[in-house]
Design a protein that fits this description.
Elements lengths: L1 H16 L6 H4 E8 L6 E2 H12 L2 E14 L4 E12 L4 E13 L2 E9 L5
Parallel strand pairs: 1-6
Antiparallel strand pairs: 1-2, 3-4, 4-5, 5-6
Length: about 120
């Protein structure tokens, strides 16, 4: 199961890095709930598309996965990694992140992202 979920998440990040927004529906459940620091909670695929296509500050970049932890008793995983890219204003972005995913019907129904930048 771990290999399948790891491949799933890697393909999802490849689609995001390629700005292939039509591919999002293959990875995210129609009732996706996504929490991400600095943004309103995202509810459903329509809001997820708006976030990636218009709201997100990232112009381009690449995710790198460092760790993937899979719970054999539940359809959930935790991923740590790094993102390097450029925002829409031309500033460099380099941040570590941690994502927690919950799956339903073989798609991500809940995602929460944490970043390694001061927020408190």
């Amino acid at each position: 199961m771990r290999d399948k979920l790891e491949h799933f998440v890697l393909c999802m990040f490849n689609s995001i890095d390629a700005s292939d927004w039509t591919a999002l529906d293959a990875y995210f459940h129609p009732r996706i709930e996504y929490r991400r620091p600095g943004y309103e909670d995202i509810q459903g695929l329509e809001q997820l598309h708006v976030f990636y296509e218009r709201t997100r500050i990232v112009k381009s970049g690449r995710h790198t996965i460092n760790t993937l932890l899979c719970d054999p008793e539940a359809p959930s995983i935790c991923v740590t990694g790094a993102f390097s890219g450029v925002d829409k204003g031309g500033r460099d972005l380099n941040v570590r992140f941690c994502d927690v995913y919950l799956f339903q019907d073989e798609k991500i129904i809940r995602r929460e992202t944490f970043f390694s930048v001061p927020a408190v």
